[in-house]
Amino acid sequence: MKLLILDAGHCLSLALVREASRRSDTELVIEVGLALDAGRLEEIAPDALVIPPLARPISAEPAAVTAHAEAVEACMEACLAADVPLVWCVSDQLYQDGFEAPIDEHVIPAPRDESLRRLVATGARIRAEHPRHLIVRLGPLFALEGSNAWLNELIDTLVAGGELRGESDVTFCPTSADAVAMALIGMLQQQHCGAGAWGSYHLAGTEPVSAYTFISMVRTQLATRLEGRGERLELGGVKALHHHHDQPLRRVLNCRRVLAVFGVHQKPWRLELGRMLDAWCRANDRSRSDAEVEE
């Protein structure tokens, strides 16, 4: 199976590269940006085109959101012309006001923000015009490398002694980019073998948590690992923010359909976070050793 991945530096694109490198049944072709025409698509002839999500669209500049939406629609048109399936990953922030209960796949986002509505319109076009599509709505992605990786930003700030801030009244399900990559390739392998299960799916980590609690957990686990290695480092602090005083916001994706259709289980974010922090500590140890050798 050959996949064409756009936005080469995105944390999800890098995770797909890592996952594909461990397999013998998946070939990746990576494009730097989101621009793609039908000629290039026909030349590569992939079994699917994968577009990583625009991270944190709520806080993104409206022009950036519009540009992303337009690029996705241009890709959809190219996919239609070349008869190539389209996979578009989308942030859970499109459910701007959240829901009391976990959000099912059939619930179409209806945000108040005009920029977010532009992304919803793109999703509507894909559902109406391209039968062979997967729209995969994701919880907040975290990874150690790549753009929009989030976790690397948190670690860098803590190590530099800076303060992190997170909402204590916004609940979501942090999602490992590596887990998403593994799930996407598994889903597309089944589609490549004729599953024909096109449509919208939700994919997120287990255990809903507030932004503040997640960031606090990053700090606690990082401090524990550094202390265990005998490193004395004063990490920055974490401050709770309160943006939804009257009604805490819950943005929790119901991921039962991806399990029922593809057999994809959600990965616990705590385990994924611990694994990534272990990897960061090992890389940090190697960097220090190399620096000592050079001295």
Automatic annotation (TrEMBL):
InterPro entries: NAD(P)-bd_dom_sf (IPR036291), RmlD-like-bd (IPR029903). Residues 62-279 form the RmlD-like substrate binding domain. It comes from the Bacteria. This is dTDP-4-dehydrorhamnose reductase.
